[in-house]
Specification:
The structure holds two protein chains of two kinds. By secondary structure, chain A is mainly alpha-helical. Chain A is built from three helices and no strands. Classes of the chains: A mainly alpha, B mainly alpha.
Chain lengths: ~120, ~500
């Protein structure tokens, strides 16, 4: 897994950036979603992958027995997932509203702010 | 006073305002009172830091580095105070400028949620918590920007949202790698461990990730394109609070990260110096090409960001004090100019320079209100901009960065040209195109709109005339920034 996940992260970033460079607004949203998934997996990988060793202090002990999996990256990811979920919901609504108003999903046609 | 208070005040205001959904009078009242409360807590906080030194607060009673730490040094306290000033000015201004539908769709709660995010970002001492405050600030700014759903607003919001989400992605990536390498997210703790890491390549990669992410938020060259595409589209009150506060949170994060967490890195500080020069020049050249009130001002924000990071690049006590003073001065002045842009639009029904003119004859007080911040922005004595630029120029000369000093002075001159262009077109000349009828504003409305602008103008005059005492606080902030050990000791004590 330690070897596979970095490639998954890299693949997600590449796919996300490719999607964001397309002209369609929907692909832009998909690209942003892929980027956020990549960031979450990256935190997971950078926090070291440990197969077993739940981080619970056994009865009668005062410190964690090694090896143990670090729970903090998972807490961080959970927070980040909730945030990116909210942001994605807003972005999709915004794209839809912009589509209703402009009648196009081609990002190159959104030039009102530059006139 | 616990450090959490400046964050809680706008948060509670927003929560209570949400309970009063669709009752606009209640929300308006709460919005103004909450902002006044934030300003008060900002003043108390600064007094506390001035008298007792760096303040820390461990959230939930968990000792650092295990819990989330809130820290207020001079820099944080000054930023919270100026957030209070801007919050109150904009809240009062919004009472008249924001139309009924926007108010009934939660304008005031959103404004206060954004202020919560901004003060949280200034006070937190934890990297991941900083990310969370950034997101709180961003999501509310997204909604504020799009609220009203006019076509330019939606297009501007789409660009703003996309680039800010990319910046958040880079920030989150950097936070993940930072945790993976040093095993902590507490800024003070991470600062100690990074200095002990002994892996310059990895530190350089981390530093660049943070730099690009904060650089996008701060609108540093060449990462600023979202700003002029979006800042002129919402109502003036919204763009004023954005122009004042949001990019400066990015600058704050840059300065905090590259003094406290990473210390002085050759790579970053050289890069900052080069980009500071380009940011100043591209911003001011962009402004010259524009012919609409708020678009000119938007490009000037970018140009001014260059001055703020110039101090970070020079990295001397005087330079950083200049940067801190510059940030405070800029927030006050730039918000004021956007507010006046809103008054002009309210009176004349347009922001295009060719449709405006002759306001000096009809509204001499407005011309005076514009002249003070405009001249301060260009850096004329005795206003605050002069003090800020003088400090940076002297710091640049001391270090021997003559080229950058030349650029800074040249850009000031072009800023003056740009302000003179607005002055001529809006206040002096007769309008060249009078086809459109003006909607006009009532006398009471004018007084409410002019009040906050007059207060901010007074503030920039005071910061210039009382430059000595004002600069003392900036110097104290710079001394703390240059000696991270004081911050680290306040958070962690002697434990590593």
């Amino acid at each position: 897994m330690n070897l596979v996940l970095p490639f998954v992260v890299g693949g997600l970033v590449a796919a996300g950036l490719y999607m964001m460079m397309r002209r369609s607004a929907i692909k832009l949203v998909i690209g942003l979603a892929l980027l956020s998934h990549a960031a979450h997996l990256l935190i997971f990988t950078a926090g070291r992958l440990t197969r077993r060793g739940e981080p619970l202090v056994p009865e009668g002990e005062t410190v964690l027995p090694k090896p143990y999996a670090d729970p903090l990256p998972q807490a961080l990811i959970l927070t980040a997932i909730v945030i990116s979920f909210g942001l994605m919901a807003f972005t999709i609504a915004l794209v839809y509203r912009a589509y209703q108003e402009t009648g196009t999903d081609d990002l190159d046609d959104l030039t009102v702010t530059e006139e | 006073m616990p450090l959490i208070v400046p964050v809680l005040v706008p948060f509670v205001t927003a929560a209570v305002s949400l309970l009063a959904w669709r009752r606009a009078p209640v929300q308006r009242l709460l919005g103004a009172i909450g902002a006044a409360g934030l300003l008060t807590s900002g003043i108390v906080l600064l007094v506390q830091v001035r008298t007792q030194g760096i303040q820390t607060s461990q959230i939930g009673g968990w000792p650092a580095p295990y819990g989330i730490t809130f820290v207020a040094d001079h820099f944080s306290a000054l930023m919270v105070l100026v957030t209070g000033v801007i919050g109150l000015s904009v809240a009062v201004y919004s009472l008249v400028e924001i139309d009924g539908p926007r108010q009934s769709f939660g304008y005031f709660p959103l404004l206060h949620i954004m202020l919560t995010g901004v003060t949280g970002a200034f006070l937190t001492g934890d990297m991941f918590n900083l990310y969370v405050w950034f997101e709180v600030m961003l999501i509310s700014s997204f909604v504020l920007l799009a609220l009203g759903s006019e076509r330019p607003q939606l297009e501007g919001a789409l660009k703003y949202v996309t680039l800010n989400l990319v910046s958040s992605f880079l920030f989150l990536t950097a936070v993940g790698i930072l945790y993976g390498e040093v095993g902590t997210l507490n800024m003070a703790h991470a600062a100690r461990r990074i200095r002990a890491l002994g892996n310059p390549d990895l530190v350089a990669i981390l530093a660049m990730l943070f730099f690009i992410s904060f650089g996008i938020k701060a609108a540093v060259f060449p990462l600023f394109f979202w700003l002029p595409a979006s800042y002129h589209t919402p109502p003036a009150a919204v763009s004023a609070v954005f122009a004042g506060l949001l990019t400066k949170v990015g600058v704050y994060a840059l300065i905090r990260t590259f003094t406290l967490v990473f210390g002085q890195l050759e790579l970053v500080h050289t890069l900052v110096l080069i980009l500071a020069g380009f940011t100043m020049v591209t911003g001011v050249l962009g402004a010259i090409a524009q012919d609409e009130f708020r678009r000119i001002l938007s490009f000037h924000i970018i140009s001014q960001i260059g001055y703020m990071i110039l101090g970070l690049g020079l990295y001397t006590p005087l330079a950083l004090a200049g940067s801190v003073f510059y940030i405070v001065h800029h927030i006050v002045v730039k918000t004021n100019l956007f507010l006046i842009g809103g008054i002009v639009r309210g009176l004349e029904g347009s922001e295009r320079l060719e449709r405006l003119g002759g306001l000096y004859n009809r509204k001499p007080w407005l011309a005076l209100l514009f002249a003070i911040p405009a001249l301060s922005l260009a850096g004329l004595p005795p206003l605050s901009g002069f003090v800020a630029k003088l400090a940076l120029v002297r710091a640049g000369l001391e270090v021997g960065e003559y080229a950058l000093v030349g650029v800074a002075l040249g850009v000031s001159l072009l800023t003056l040209y740009s302000m003179a262009k607005i002055w001529n077109a809006v206040f002096w000349e007769a309008p060249s195109d009078t086809s459109k009828a003006a909607p006009g504003l009532g006398g009471g409305a004018q007084a409410v709109l002019a009040g906050p602008a007059a207060m901010l103008a007074l503030l920039t005059v005071c910061m210039g005339l009382l430059a000595g005492p004002a600069f003392l606080a900036a110097e104290a902030a710079a001394a703390e920034l240059l000696d991270p050990e004081r911050y680290i000791y306040a958070v962690l004590g002697d434990a590593s």
